[in-house]
Amino acid sequence: MNFDLSEEQQMMRESFARFLDEESSMARVRAAWSTGFDAAMWKGLAELGAFSLRVPEAAGGLGLGLLDAAVLMEEVGRTLASGPVAETLVAARLLAAVAQPEARALLDKLLSGDAVVSIALHDIEQQPLQWVAGGAVADAVLARAQDQLLLLSLPAELRKAEENLAQTAIAELDLSRAPRRVLASGGEASRAFAQGLEEWKLLLAVALSGLSREALRLAAAYACERSAFGQLIGSYQGISHPLADLITDVDGGKLLALKTIRDIADAKAEAGAEVSLSIWWNTDTATRAVAQALHTFGGYGLTTEYDIHLYNLRAKAWPLVYGDPAHLLEEAGRRLFAGEQAELPEAGAVSIDFDLGEEAQALAHELHEFFNKTLTPELRAKAHYSFDGFDAGVHKKLAEARLLFPNWEVQYGGRKAPPYAMSAVAHVYEEQNWSSHAVSTTSMVGVMMQRFGSEQLKREVLSKVIAGEAICSLGYSEPSCGSDVFAAQTRATREADGSWRIDGSKMFTSGANIAEYVLMLTRTNPDVPKHKGLTMFIVPLKTPGVTIQPVYTFQDERTNITYYDGVKIPDAYRLGEVDGGVKVMASALELEHGGGFARAQKAMVLAAEKLCREVSWRGQPLIAQSFAQARLARATAHYFLSEVLGHRALWWGAQKKPNMGYGPMTKLFSSEKFLKDSADLLDLTAPHSLSKRVGAAGFLNQCYRHAQGSTIYGGTSEVHRSQIAERALNLPRTRA
């Protein structure tokens, strides 16, 4: 797995960034506003080799890949470069594929910046009158007419510039009147143009991602300067939380485009749909990002003095030359669920890699084999997504096979499996429909004992956990404080003999009814600031004074409220220093906050697709309807995005890079989309989805109820938004 650009690509990005910071500064963008085209910048880009990136070396180009072009386009978007860059990149590659002298002569002029060549996005036999990006300044347009690749010359009388939304060089052209030359014909010509169109979609998606990120950066910087009611406006959650949502969406959009490039290179079946989803998602995200960024500026954002309005207008203008973005989602739906095929461009070399690796695959295979051998029909019938699916016998067998905690050190019964392998393990649990709640929670508590526990605790408790003879639950939340763990009131009082007495209660102690131990957050000093007087303990739940009372949720699962009345535990069961619980808890929350719900989202979409194939709408299968395909495609996009955000968080942590809030991004995005899509897919398949009968309908029904808690446990969405705002956008602290 790798999310870093190659050294050469990093140098190229820096080179383009330096050039465009100067030659496409906001002053230059404003200066080119009347025409939407900056000829000097265009010439400079050509001299840097920008337009030759995707042209084969044999034709005078650099012969680089899609990822290299994406590096350029991100900078083009960030700086609002004035000219049809994406279209010209595609046109250059198409011209290079043609042997005709006229095409080669035009290519030479294009590469030197002496000619602007754009593309017509729709077949001109079907749509001779159409809008063309850069059409007001282009010397020529490449177009498709059925199976012909045409070169259309644009004399001055055909290029009619007019006022438009963002003052780009867009123009509505009657291409039937343009002088034409057939460059190629037949299946190869048609395929080449179709591949070019898919490349254009990807390049524009990345440009919109760069534009969106810069708009949010401008908004965040302003929010760190502007005060209202005596506070920087960035400290208000009404400002910071929407920006946190959007930077997560923007990051996801860029990562999805990169995954698409990787999947094209690997010839993955879903790559064609991912192209459509990438441009659809980045178009939608850009619209929302620039609107919220402008809103952050308030009334000033409406004035032409502030640059944010330039981003607002370009975000809408660039993609709408293609038409309604909803068509792209429908296209993704057809590609995913109706068998439509896409002609995809050659990707070239791709350094970005989302693969978990051979070690992860081997461990996943071994675990699959274990479950296939161990899970009888009776056990599979017992399965549940919560602690209710726990089976002590299976848990014990996992420990014996050293598959219970594979990431632990060998001395603790593990295999020292890397994070990538553990991600593969989590996929296996989802695919086998076997609950991992007891395993994941116990693993987290076990790691705390390894890091902070006494030798006595390790000997008496950790040994049982390693052997698969004990599981653990979490005792953070209390009836009165919820996610504000620093407000915990459960007391731990030191006794004369050095032991501790615990009194209080904990809410949502899931698994306490079957667990042997609970990781307990207590208050040990009420006379200091609340975050300084906390201490963590391991509390045996069979100790006298512990009462466990069931609390049932409408998600068909049991949680608990637990009471502690004079519960005595030895000092050896303390984790970390007295009053040093924040350090221990921070380590625990770091482990808990990185998770997401991509696997649950994927299972939900697969169930919804199955149900859409089983039920009818007006005499046809529901899956045959374009609206059903589009809604399934949207939910698919969300789980793709959750997955790539999760992979980045996984890689970032494995590389020991600074905490940029990538774990909270994964949890926030995946839980919010799981909640939204579970409701939408329940609607789509209604009334069948109301049933709890075994099968796809019952599973969708369960997903809707399951998703309700996903934005709450493991840290609420509001907590994660604050973390993202502070870490990813450098906004002021928004939590007391």
UniProtKB/TrEMBL annotation:
Its name, as the record gives it, is Acyl-CoA dehydrogenase
What are the Acyl-CoA dehydrogenase/oxidase N-terminal domain coordinates in residue numbering? Answer: 6-113, 358-469
This entry's Gene Ontology molecular function terms read: acyl-CoA dehydrogenase activity; flavin adenine dinucleotide binding
Q: Which residues form the Acyl-CoA dehydrogenase/oxidase C-terminal domain?
A: 195-334, 580-728
Cofactors, names only:
FAD
State the signal peptide span. Answer: none
Asked if the record carries the keyword Flavoprotein, the reply is yes
Record Gene3D superfamilies: Acyl-CoA dehydrogenase/oxidase, N-terminal domain, Butyryl-CoA Dehydrogenase, subunit A, domain 2, Butyryl-CoA Dehydrogenase, subunit A, domain 3
InterPro entries tied to this protein:
Acyl-CoA_Oxase/DH_mid-dom (IPR006091), Acyl-CoA_Oxase/DH_mid-dom_sf (IPR046373), AcylCo_DH-like_C (IPR036250), AcylCo_DH/oxidase_C (IPR009075), AcylCoA_DH/ox_N (IPR013786), AcylCoA_DH/ox_N_sf (IPR037069), AcylCoA_DH/oxidase_NM_dom_sf (IPR009100)
Read off the SUPFAM superfamilies from this record.
Acyl-CoA dehydrogenase C-terminal domain-like, Acyl-CoA dehydrogenase NM domain-like
Give the family from UniProt.
Answer: Belongs to the acyl-CoA dehydrogenase family.
Q: Where is the Acyl-CoA oxidase/dehydrogenase middle domain?
A: 474-552
Which species?
Solimonas aquatica
